[in-house]
Amino acid sequence: MDLMERIFNAGVVGCGGAGFPAHVKLNTKANWLIINGAECEPLLRTDRYVMRHEASQLIEAAELIGDFLAAEHIVIALKEHYEAERKALVSAVSARKSKVKLHFLENFYPAGDEQVLVYEVTGSIVPPAGTRLLAF
Questions:
Q1: Is 43 exposed, middle or buried, given 0-12, 13-18 or 19+ CB atoms closer than 10 A?
Q2: CB under 8 Å to 105, separation ≥6 — which residues?
Q3: What is the mean pLDDT of the chain?
Q4: Does residue 80 belong to any structural domain of this protein?
Q5: pTM (two decimals)
Q6: pLDDT at position 65 over 80
Q7: What domain range is 41 assigned to?
Q8: Is residue 13 a part of any domain in this protein?
Q9: Cα atoms found within 13 Å of the Cα of residue 11, Cβ hemisphere only
């Protein structure tokens, strides 16, 4: 069973309001895979929990998806002040000798504005109507 079949069978969907199926969003090629770990809701801690307690599995999944996408860059963006999460991810990246990079953001999140996140990580501006190219 290939990766997209596994994702489909697991029922993985986006956490946005539309619940867009992940296997559809990921069925492409991309130069960048940006994993958004900068939680935008002030009371949510799911991303932080996963980064802290499942760091090795997160890095492995990022590598698998990055390879599937043929991504040259695989980046996990998280807030700079997430100390425990940073330590867990740095350790997991080091242990796996992973090509996954970490990008530390200031203590803000432009809620719903993935274009700002893309700019923060890549330095590139998403062109008008370019959000349809983003797989968040």
A1: exposed
A2: 38, 77, 78, 79, 80, 117, 120
A3: 87
A4: yes
A5: 0.87
A6: yes
A7: 29-133
A8: no
A9: 0
